[in-house]
Amino acid sequence: MFQHSIVAAPAVLVQNPAMPTPAEIAFRLVLITFNHWNMQGELQDGKIILYDEVAPEFIQIIKKAHETRFPFHRFALMSEFGWDDHEACRQNISAGHNMRLFSLKNATKMSKHGTGTAWDFNPIQNPCWDINPDDRTIINGIYPDNATGYNPCIPGTLYLGHPIVQLAIELGYAWGGAIWKDPLDLMHFQKALPQHEKYFK
User: Fold this and answer.
1) Residue 96 to residues 11, 57, 90, 141, 149, Cα–Cα distance (Å)
2) Omega cis (within 30) before 56
3) Pair 157, 125: CB distance under 8 Å
4) pLDDT confidence of 100, banded at 50, 70, 90?
5) Which pTM does this prediction carry?
6) What gap in Å lies between CA 133 and CA 130, rounded to an integer?
């Protein structure tokens, strides 16, 4: 049976000392706990921090994953990794809020992970591809760097038309496998909220 709970996120779990979360965002962040299928076909507990406005929609999406037995390696909070996105992705961690800059492009701009309106699912199965803008057949790099490729037949992998991707799009989310030509960020989902636009200018 699918189970979940939502409580206010403790400040210690949302404040990256190197890049503090603005107070108006921090007090709206919630800690969501839930159960999900893992790669061994067993139920395990997961947790994620997100902006409260998107939490009910995330629950709909994770419930769909539960119903379709879509597996996740592990959910964890970024504070466990010192807010190091690269290390978390290398360990195939699915996660949400992380006050940081955009990883590959526009590195001076804040990521939507900072507002808690974005999350990543299974980075190893769904890596981010840095594509050569002059020749899209050339891959400049892959993130995380220990990902070995992409195969939609492997459990835990997303693709256009997948039930989770489709539901997220219906709920108003953008999927990184479809919204950008470069990078092609297959792990990434995000939602733009008008009150946060000032952070991305």
Assistant:
1) 15, 13, 15, 23, 23
2) no
3) yes
4) confident
5) 0.93
6) 9
DSSP line for the chain: ---EEEEEPPGGGT-BTTBPPPHHHHTTEEEEEEEEE-TTS-EEEEEEEEETTTHHHHHHHHHHHHHTT-B-SEE--GGGGTT-HHHHHHTTEEB-----B-SSS-TTSBPGGGGT-EEE--TTTSPEEEE-SS-TT-EEEEESTT-----TTSTT---TT-HHHHHHHHTTPEETTTS-SSSEETTEEE---GGGGGGG-
Number of domains within the chain: 1
Cα 130 from Cα 38, distance rounded (Å): 28
What's the domain range around 165? 4-200
Query: Which tokens is 149 given?
Result: 């490729």
**What dihedral angle (degrees, nearest 10) is formed by the CA atoms of 184, 190, 194, 200?**
-50
- List the beta bridge partners of residue 7: 31
Q: Distance between CA atoms of 70 and 156, rounded to whole angstroms?
A: 6
What tens digit of pLDDT does each residue of 114-158 get? 999 999 999 999 999 886 666 666 667 788 999 988 999 999 999
Closest of 190, 61, 7 to residue 114, by C-alpha: 190
